Amino acid sequence: MRRIRAAGAVVRDADGRFLLVLRTKEPEAGAWTVPGGSVESGESFAQAAAREVLEETGLVVRVLHELWTVDVPFGDDAVYEIHDFLAAPVSGRLQAGDDAGDARWFTPDEMRDIPLTHDLLGYFTRAGLSDEPA
To answer: CA-to-CA distance for 134 and 125, rounded, in angstroms?
Structure first.
């Protein structure tokens, strides 16, 4: 089984909103999720998470700590090993990048009303980031 290293960031602002991007590619195209992508050669998971946020949203973030790791199967012979980090916005202007259909801030209540990637609210809840039941 081929493992593909990936990283993402749960970016939370001072108002308690979360930064999400709209996926345009499979898996789960058309669903909202945290910004993220593949780790480049010589890059740490945390560095990749910060770079992906900048590329997908135009925002510079400070990575705080790792929240969770999840394996997501991809095809018959690969799995994405995804490390997601908590991050805080530092600077920049919110604007969806080329590989994101849109980028917006959402409250936990608003997230209940949009299509999210598989179990995203559950991950937020288990990490203590949302009051929603898992």
So the answer is: 6
* Phi, psi of 40, rounded to the nearest 5 degrees: -85, 160
DSSP conformation class of 98:
T
How far is 115 from 92, CA to CA, in rounded Å? 26
Cβ-proximal residues to 12 (8 Å cutoff; 6+ apart), any chain: 18, 19, 86, 87, 88, 129
- 43-93: per-residue pLDDT in tens? 999 999 999 999 999 999 999 999 999 998 888 899 999 999 999 999 999
Tokens representing residue 22 in the block: 């709209």
* DSSP 8-state secondary structure symbol assigned to residue 116: B
Q: Does pTM top 0.85 for this prediction?
A: yes
**Where exactly are the structural domains of the chain?**
2-126
Q: What is the CATH number of domain 2-126?
A: 3.90.79.10
Distances (CA, A) of 89 to 41, 52, 60, 68, 115: 25, 13, 6, 19, 24
Question: How far apart are alpha carbons 74 and 63 in whole angstroms?
Answer: 27
